[in-house]
């Protein structure tokens, strides 16, 4: 299959995407028993895909750190992205934001809201619901935790559950968003935070942890009585003194002496609200899905794990369950990835659980290892900067373009940009590279993910 077909046309299945017709308004959704239903009481599945939207930000070389964007990067959602998502057949997207985009002190908050609402409207017009996902809250989050968890607890960045300021800011941010989105039926609901961690008891007891979950739900309900609230499972906890944990710094087991090591066990928190959906994420076995340290997984174990979570949600939570994230990075070959998806999809289909693939698109460049990406598509978002580095960098840029499946883009856009910087200004910043009718000028590729695309397409149309 040519790059043009795989990026834009996907000619073998494009006609099937006509099943999803543009819609002016989507019906309101709510929870009824163990299901999500529409206004007619008909059961609705929300199978879809995660939009990470580059919420973790871009690397600041002078400060040697990632900086969270206070304005969404222009490249993360363009007209071609809505078209590709429509053709994939998603019923919903899990739309990631970071706290800073809608912080009270962000002078761009109002314009960010305008952009968010325009994206919601575009998705709704193609029949796609939007879940607003606070993917990166203020303070500790699942991205900066990769470094923070190496530190002892008293030196670690505080989470929203430990810092009174961060918690107050979080409540304020959600009040603002909910107040402005409450009348949009095409918003499926609010995913209140992503992959939280239960702090050590000295910093936040389980009782306080549960209270804060309920407080946030109450704040949302004070503004919005109709939308679903998606309540995440916590995926880990900090050890208390005397507890045993695996110390990655020493590659061995340790007994906590107050350093608050990380224990990778999680659980659900029951909230006092009837219009909620509980959410889990599934990447087991981690050695298979992240980095291909192991080539093995077991389909029966996948079903057992997810069915156990479903049992709690149905008997204790008395609500539906969704799998908010699942996926495999490109370190595994495509044939392994699709086998894993078959196993996950089979379980989701058997139990009627909606799932969201992680993720739609990654930024790739000469600096990124393509094996570490989860994205169905890759976008060569940094090529304009790379050609500026001069001829000595050209070989690296060419290799990266080819390795990530951008051969036609390289020939039609990257090479001319090397020769003529004006081409970049006019084509990329001027919008020419963003023209869906000129796919070879658009720096986006399905890479080696066509088999994955087919599996997702079939799953999204299965129930």
From TrEMBL:
The keyword Hydrolase applies. Residues 79-361 form the Glycoside hydrolase family domain. This is Glycoside hydrolase family 5 domain-containing protein. GO terms for molecular function: beta-glucosidase activity. SUPFAM superfamilies: (Trans)glycosidases. It comes from candidate division WOR-1 bacterium RIFOXYB2_FULL_36_35. GO terms for biological process: cellulose catabolic process. Keywords: Carbohydrate metabolism, Cellulose degradation, Glycosidase, Hydrolase, Polysaccharide degradation. One of its GO terms (cellular component) is extracellular region. Belongs to the glycosyl hydrolase 5 (cellulase A) family. The keyword Zinc does not apply.
